[in-house]
């Protein structure tokens, strides 16, 4: 027994190195059955040879010890229940798989501990050739398609299509969906009630809209050649929809040149982005196929949401009847999930267990920001835009809740009656404006470079939604649950806020009932109140960040102004002792020095004034929408300009004093700190550019309003 251990060690090392003769000889000398396992998984030598990818060694072992009649290795399983064919299915050893099936065809339908057949393992590891081989063998063994289905899924009802999507082998998943179309139907759900399109809609990284590329990465991405299948599908889609190609007319040999570029230039980033583009194209082709089969949006909603007068909203929620798969849905008992979860009317029973409601693919793709799936669903089924979840939330509720701006704009631009969507009130009594105040639905967290700009973006969302919602909906109160005393009085300022609210409620009791038609629930909040309550922490962070930034930048601006002011009295080259005129007054670079120094002083002092105005502002919530970001933008602009002209003044001084011939070196050195400053502050500057756009648009509208004859006559 003790002598067997070193033999197993030597045997394992021989298998790893692929020494066929040594493996056969050593295995012959070991007593059978083995008293100690070869590996922790209790693999046989054939298992080890396969997952070590020693195909020739595995073939020799199979020929010598694979006879099932003689009790060979072919029938052995490891602790996971994997047969030899299970191991081979995770590789591309198709010839070895044929030999195994020829010796024991029953291994084709043998399952492991999780109920996985070999073809399931092939789909899980993305082995296309192995999948095709095993699929053909299954068709030959089971001519009736209904007999094949039990072998295409495991115990938890996960099918080979589900696992291919989860493993992100989208080309293979598309092949599976085309071969076994019933796997893409709504009736084929896993244990969690998910279909393949729902799983795909929960993987934003598989689509272009789920990635945030930089400038160089975007250039490489759009320059990367597409597959021929993708080009053909795009051309056919243009023909089907009647949309002509409005892109630039490229030369006939453009694709050839681009492909040569990608062959020659083999940067790691280039290869990675090219592979990502191929994956995005494959995922979108799969989504197109699955969308045509999906009709989950057709299920009628039996939610408690209403359309019409907000004042008619009930005070209490009723207990909904339990629903089963394939029926309508209703609001959950006791309210909805306030942590950002939304259902989609797919509540059902599997194996006698009730599964929680799941999102339909349309709403799930909306929440995760997969624009491609949302647009494709609405292109194929435009009426799906009116679909609602079991919480009574439509696509606008979900897009606003998860801050999906592109989807929000796309829905607005559709030729549909927006009144139906914007008037919908969900099971919590939330209008679409209430969901602006819900900060639990962020997919990727904060995307802006600072809390101030994050709060500004939130206020812009408030303004966007306020434009499309009816005026009287803005005073509608939701059915928000009461908070505990600890949550209300956690901080002293919040306690003061609550006391002010109680005082306001007491005053509102004196108002006639018809003036309170929209305040149907005393425990609820309006959209503005909810926004202020949920954005308290963000407002505090924005105030602190803006104060720190303004203090730091004002210090730098004062320092630059001091240097510029001192330079004005210590001119390069000195002054004439008798007349006081600068000695280098006639030198052209002296004019450059003078102009740059004056601009440096003026711009730095202007920057100081802008930052001081920020520090002395009240930092109210409404100020972060436009006023404070605009002041910060002006301050950064003048500060950046003062740094640039100060370095130019310094360069002009060096040229005046030293008289170098290679002056471009001086200017290069002068612009080095300016360039570094610009690169480091570019994201912050870019975030504030929208403030400039808003200002210019506001000025343009004011000018056009004043210049319009009708407006002028009305003013008179």
CATH level-4 homologous superfamily of one domain: Ankyrin repeat-containing domain
The main pleated sheet reads as: 2 strands, antiparallel
- Mean model confidence by pLDDT: 77
According to CATH, what is the class of one domain? Mainly Alpha
Explain what the structure shows.
The chain is an all-alpha fold and 716 residues long. Among the domains are: 152 residues, Ankyrin repeat-containing domain (Serine Threonine Protein Phosphatase 5, Tetratricopeptide repeat); 181 residues, Ankyrin repeat-containing domain (Serine Threonine Protein Phosphatase 5, Tetratricopeptide repeat, Alpha Horseshoe), CATH 1.25.40.20; 165 residues, no CATH class. It is built from 31 helices and 4 strands. The strands form 2 sheets. The chain has a two-stranded antiparallel ribbon with strand order 1-4. β2 and β3 form a beta hairpin. α1 runs antiparallel to α2, α11 packs parallel to α16 and α26 packs parallel to α28. The longest helix is centred in the C-terminal third of the chain and has 34 residues. The protein is extended, with a radius of gyration of 35 Å. The chain starts with a helix and ends with a helix. 35% of the residues are buried.
């Amino acid at each position: 027994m003790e002598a067997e251990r070193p033999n197993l060690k030597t045997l394992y090392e021989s298998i790893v190195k692929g020494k066929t003769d040594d493996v056969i000889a050593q295995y012959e000398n070991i007593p059978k059955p083995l008293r100690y396992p070869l590996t922790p998984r209790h693999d046989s030598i054939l298992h080890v040879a396969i997952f070590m990818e020693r195909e020739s060694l595995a073939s020799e072992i199979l020929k010598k010890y694979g006879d099932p009649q003689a009790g060979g290795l072919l029938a052995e399983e490891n602790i996971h229940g994997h047969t030899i064919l299970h191991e081979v299915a995770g590789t591309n050893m198709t010839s070895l798989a044929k030999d195994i099936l020829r010796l024991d065809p029953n291994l084709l339908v043998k399952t492991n501990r999780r109920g996985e057949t070999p073809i399931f393992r092939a789909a899980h590891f993305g082995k296309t050739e192995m999948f095709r081989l095993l699929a053909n063998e299954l068709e030959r063994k089971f001519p009736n398609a209904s007999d094949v289905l039990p072998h295409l899924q495991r115990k938890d009802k996960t099918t080979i299509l589900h696992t291919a999507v989860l493993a992100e082998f989208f080309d293979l998943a598309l092949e599976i969906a085309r071969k076994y179309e019933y796997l893409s139907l709504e009736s084929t759900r896993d244990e969690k009630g998910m279909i393949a399109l729902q799983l795909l809609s929960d993987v934003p990284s598989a689509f272009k809209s789920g990635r945030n590329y930089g400038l160089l990465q975007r250039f490489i991405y759009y320059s990367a050649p597409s597959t021929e299948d993708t080009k053909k599908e795009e051309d056919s889609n243009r023909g089907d929809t009647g949309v002509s190609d409005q892109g630039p007319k490229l030369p006939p040999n453009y694709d050839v040149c681009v492909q040569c570029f990608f062959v020659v230039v083999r940067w790691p980033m280039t290869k990675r982005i090219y592979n990502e583009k191929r994956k995005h194209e494959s995922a979108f082709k799969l989504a197109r196929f699955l969308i045509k089969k999906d009709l989950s949006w057709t299920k009628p909603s039996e939610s408690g949401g209403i359309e019409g007068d907000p004042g008619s909203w009930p005070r209490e929620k009723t207990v909904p009847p339990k629903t089963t798969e394939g029926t309508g849905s209703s609001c959950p008992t006791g309210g909805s999930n306030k942590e950002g979860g939304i259902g989609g009317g797919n509540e059902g029973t599997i194996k006698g267990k009730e599964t929680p409601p799941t999102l339909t693919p349309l709403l799930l793709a909306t929440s995760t920001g997969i624009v491609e799936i949302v647009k494709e669903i609405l292109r194929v089924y435009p009426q799906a835009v009116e679909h609602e979840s079991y919480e009574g939330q439509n696509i606008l509720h979900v897009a606003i809740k998860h801050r999906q701006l592109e989807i929000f704009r796309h829905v607005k631009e559709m030729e549909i009656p927006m009144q139906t969507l914007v008037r919908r009130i969900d099971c919590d009594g939330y209008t679409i404006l209430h969901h602006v105040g819900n900060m639990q639905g962020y997919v990727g967290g904060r995307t802006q470079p600072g809390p101030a700009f994050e709060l500004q973006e939130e206020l812009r969302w408030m303004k966007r939604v306020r434009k499309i919602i009816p005026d009287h909906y803005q005073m509608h109160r939701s059915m928000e649950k009461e908070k505990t005393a600890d949550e209300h009085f956690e901080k002293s300022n919040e306690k003061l806020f609550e006391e002010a609210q109680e005082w306001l409620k007491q005053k509102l009791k004196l108002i006639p009932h018809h003036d309170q038609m929209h305040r149907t629930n005393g425990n609820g909040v309006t959209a503005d109140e909810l926004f202020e309550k949920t954005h308290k922490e963000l407002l505090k962070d924005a105030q602190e960040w803006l104060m720190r930034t303004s203090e730091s930048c004002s210090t730098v601006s004062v320092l630059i102004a001091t240097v510029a002011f001192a330079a004005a009295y210590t001119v390069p080259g000195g002054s004439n002792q008798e007349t006081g005129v600068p000695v280098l007054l006639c030198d052209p670079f002296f004019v450059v020095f003078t102009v740059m120094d004056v601009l440096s002083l003026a711009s730095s002092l202007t920057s100081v004034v802008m930052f001081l105005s920020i520090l002395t502002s009240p930092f109210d919530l409404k100020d972060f929408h436009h006023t404070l970001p605009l002041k910060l933008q002006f301050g950064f602009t003048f500060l950046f300009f003062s740094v640039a002209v100060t370095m130019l003044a310094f360069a002009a001084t060096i040229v005046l004093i030293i008289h170098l011939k290679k002056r471009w070196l001086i200017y290069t050195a002068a612009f080095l700190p300016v360039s570094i400053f610009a690169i480091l502050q570019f994201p912050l500057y870019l975030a504030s550019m929208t403030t400039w756009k808003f200002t210019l648009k506001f000025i343009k509208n004011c000018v056009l309003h004043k210049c319009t004859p009708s407006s002028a006559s009305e003013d008179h």
